[in-house]
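[job 4417] fold queue: 2 targets
>>> target A
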Amino acid sequence: MFPSYYEPWGYTPLESAAFRVPTVTSDLAGFGMWVNTLLKHEAQLEDGVKVVHRTDSNWDEASDDISLQVEKWVGKSSAEREDIRKKAGKIAQKALWKHFIKYYLEAYNFAVEKTWNKIYDNN
């Protein structure tokens, strides 16, 4: 359970999913936002990663949702749990560096170009 109030990315829930451990995170963590975008809906426990909605003022709602996820997990059969574990692992596979490197390189090149232009515009 990683119901973060805020995390820039959220490596811990990603690492859990990579080990096929179903994970609960929040939509204030970058990983949670990314999972919702990836799945094109608010991620549920059955997806392998549950993304809990968090705001400045919804502590009770968020904690109730987290409690519900634990109850749901306990009530699952071993076959359902294995299916959810596989889905968690599949989500983590989509976050491998080989899929994200292009975005890093784009950002890096953008920064280098801006810096380069600033240096030569000042001369």
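>>> target B
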Amino acid sequence: MSKSTPITQSELESYLWGAATLLRGYIDAGDYKQFIFPLMFFKRLCDVYDEERAISIEELGDDFPEYHRFDVPVSAHWNAVREVTQNVGMAIQAAMHDIEQANPPLNGIFGDAPWTNKDRLSDATLIDLIEHFSTQTLSRERVDEDLLGQAYEYLIKKFADDSGHTAAEFYTNRTVVHLMTALLQPQEGESIYDPTCGSGGMLLSAAEALKRNGQDTRTLKMYGQEINLMTSAIARMNLFMHGFEDFAIVRGDTLANPHFRQGDRLQQFDVILANPPYSINSWNRTAFESDAYGRNLYGTPPQGRADYAFWQHIIASLKPDSGRCAILYPHGVLFRNEERHMRERLIQSDVVEAIIGLGPNLFYNSPMEACIIICRMNKPAARRGRILFINALNEVTRERAFSYLTDAHMERITGAYHAFTDVEGFARVVTIEQALAQDANLNIPLYVRQQNGNNSTEQSLPQVIAEWQKSSAELRRSMDALFDTLDDVQ
């Protein structure tokens, strides 16, 4: 088999984004992904199938099934679809269906894009797309899995940029994801779970962390659930594109119908990474009050905010000995009064290990400040009864309207977390009694006053709120003491 020239990263990215630009003016930018990702995966499957076929013939004189990871029926091959000039969408849809039927692990992976809707995409537009994808061969020899995976992530980021407010449902700032992974340090043989997995970036980050450390990623067991059908399909394609096959990504509502179960209880995992949807109100609060899986460990959240429902689902899904999680949330979950009683019980259970405040704009297309909450079911003895607060508000870089964490930012944060000790103006270890004495308010500025280089007294809004809440709590306690004294006098 003759050698072919590998494609470069920039050539691959230009090729993939070029396909998306063909859709401009025909469909909304937020819908690019439901057409481009399936076509990209379809093309990759067929090119790898042809590559495997050529190797089999060269080595054994014939094409043997054992040489193929997946089966591509002749009538469903890219080349067959390329010959179609009328009802092209129907041909694409039929080919994808036949490939799914021939390969049970791929069932549903191409999603549910409306390929046959000619009002959205005409035959001419689909032919242009197919011809564009046909200009490159996506075989393993030309495009190895690491390169293809990076290009896939590039495309996810580009679609997030182009689609604006719809991006958050499938994309989380990758530098934040890498920080979360570095904090939890997944190991060989562990199970990794993301209950709201989006495009699978957190699962991949865990696998890539093992790879960087020279560990065997094949021993890692990856699980994810995602409510959106197309997004769950994108996550599966993403993992396949990166060369992983031993994973389980399912579509479904994690709160209403958690998929990963063992008998009448939830399946439990070593590591959970999550960025749950923020404050959703369309969820079944009544069912959660008497949850069949015992997820209302600390109480039932208000209807308008399901954040603590996801948090409790995560806690219930952790193994009692090795279980640990990193959850990305807005700061509101740390101090909102309507969730105070649940927060009290969380603190008392001694599973909250660290709370890390990050800077603004790290949620996609949102100026809100983010925080990472780390819980550990079996804390080391030295950390029991304690919570580490890290105020990393200034550990963020912004360039061309994009905020991210540099390696130096991540090293400072992970270093403070692993040291688990006080750092003036940056980190503080607090006992659970101290946290409870603040009415279970976990807002970071209550515990870590950030140093200001110019000695300015100017404070951020969260700091102002925290100070007000602290003074209000102290005033209430003083008033209670005063009334007690007056009662004694009377």
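[job 4417] complete. Note on B: The chain has a mean pLDDT of 87.
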